[in-house]
Amino acid sequence: MHSIVRFTPWLVTAPVAVVCWPVSTPLSLVFLGLFALGVQDVLQTKQAVRRNYPVTGRLRYALEYIRPELRQYFLEDDEQKLPFSRSERAMVYARSKEQNDQRGFGSIKDMYQAGTEWITHSMRPEQLDPASLRITVGGSDCRQPYAMSLLNISGMSFGALSPNAIKALNKGAAKGGFAHDTGEGSISVHHREHGGDLIWQIASGYFGCRTPEGRFDPERFAAQAQSPQVKMIEIKLSQGAKPGHGGVLPKAKVSAEIAEARGVPMGQDCVSPARHSAFSTPVELLNFVSELRHLSGGKPVGIKLCVGHPGEWFAIVKAMLHTGQTPDFVVVDGSEGGTGAAPIEFADHVGMPLRDGLRLVHNSLVGTGLRDRIKIGASGKVISAFDMARCLAFGADWCNSGRGFLFSLGCIQSRSCHTDHCPTGVATQDPVRQRALVVTDKAERVFHFHSHTLQALAELLGAAGLSSPDQLRCDHIMVRNEAGQAQPLSALIDTLAPGALLKDTETPAALPALYASHWPKAQAHSWSQSG
């Protein structure tokens, strides 16, 4: 009986087709087609649902296929962050298109929910010029410091993004005077076309500066790094999306343009190893930083990482103290970041979230007296002016945004970046799909998103009574705790006094628990902890 019920919708298509034939041949052909699909369902052996429910079982797969769109457009709450809320996306779309981004009839947020945050305002507001929101990066060893915007484009490679997306981002950056991080895929012809400022990211594959064997090539590096368009060099140790994980671009996706930019042969998989071969200890990492600074002609050189073992970061800090060498900047990427594909376990369960990593890096540099020598960038779900203000309060000097700028290009959060089927032409190498992204139009949107977000940040800082972003502290951010009480952010996070790690090395009990546990064991010459 159950079998008859399961097969009935399929079996009735044949007699219906016969009955319809004299009346409507096209309709009859439709039912014959459905009958043929049912035959295919019964004979195939890959999908049990289709085999047991011919024709009707296909509805299950069709609904599963469009589930993300149904949820996003019909079921998702305006404040539900998966990973960005409808309200956040709408804000970026409005700002990038120069539409009204204001909201009527009050906030839609529950102000009494645990975790709610706000910035304290002053009875004596200030007025800030958004054009002044810049920070100079480059220490005493740097001959070509760079005055960069407080908001810049995070690292996203050509190959992950389409040629048109790269062109639009760089053209918008050129018009707005902010920086475009190349991602580990190196500098392509599309990055160069519009002349926007570049941060060249050097990762474990040494793309754009590698030998045929995949090791670092100083001569190839120097030839590219000394280009006036390259403003800073960033050594990527790890990234928020998949820290501690390498990557492979299959040979089928290695086009002639990608091969030229990365310096790899066509017809072979393009491999990014999980770790660097140019150095193997914290001290060697700092020697590599100094080497790149010299080869680039004295440009700022820094590192990017998603913090993992706290002791490994402390080892880098101890290496700075031991050698006297420091990077010009550190970009802290959070585990909530990520614009491309990543294994589920890595995306959900590996790496330190941005706020924790950012505070750890800031505190350790303050606690060793190195903070004034090193600038800190923050990257990971930064999309609004308040996101930026919160990062600045945690200790950042500037912010990078990846997905925010992708939204300005027209990204609809379809989450199909890894399929090469991006519906808006942003994350695809399909020449037909990428035609939908018109560079001249989208470059303007990139420019407008940046300018309006900095305008909003200037207004936020002014409302707090601050005349400069470096005056923002954790005391300016309020957070509602689980008990429903409002507390300053400073009461909820660890803070170290200047030089505290130098003074308390022998008495770690005086330090917050994380520092007391890991700082004494960190070693400048090894990633492993002693003891």
Task: Summarize the entry for a quick read.
The relative contact order is 0.13. The protein is built from 20 helices and 15 strands. Helix 8 links the parallel strand 5 and strand 6.
Q: What can you see in these coordinates?
A:
The chain has 531 residues and is α/β, with parallel strands linked by helices. The chain is built from 20 helices and 15 strands. It has helices at 2-11, 13-20, 25-43, 48-52, 58-75, 86-96, 163-176, 189-192, 218-225, 256-262, 282-295, 310-323, 344-349, 354-367, 385-394, 403-409, 431-434, 439-463, 500-503, 513-518; strands at residues 117-119, 134-137, 146-149, 151-153, 180-181, 198-202, 230-236, 247-249, 270-272, 301-305, 329-333, 375-379, 398-401, 477-480, 486-488. Strands 4-13-12-11-10-7-6-5 form an eight-stranded parallel β-sheet. Helix 12 (310-323) links the parallel strand 10 (301-305) and strand 11 (329-333). Helix 15 (385-394) crosses helix 18 (439-463).
Chain-wise SSE layout:
Blueprint: H1 2-11, H2 13-20, H3 25-43, H4 48-52, H5 58-75, H6 86-96, E1 117-119, E2 134-137, E3 146-149, E4 151-153, H7 163-176, E5 180-181, H8 189-192, E6 198-202, H9 218-225, E7 230-236, E8 247-249, H10 256-262, E9 270-272, H11 282-295, E10 301-305, H12 310-323, E11 329-333, H13 344-349, H14 354-367, E12 375-379, H15 385-394, E13 398-401, H16 403-409, H17 431-434, H18 439-463, E14 477-480, E15 486-488, H19 500-503, H20 513-518
Parallel strand pairs: 4-13, 5-6, 6-7, 7-10, 10-11, 11-12, 12-13
Antiparallel strand pairs: 1-14, 2-3, 8-9, 14-15
Helix pairs in contact: 2-3, 6-16, 6-18, 7-18, 11-12, 12-14, 15-18, 16-18
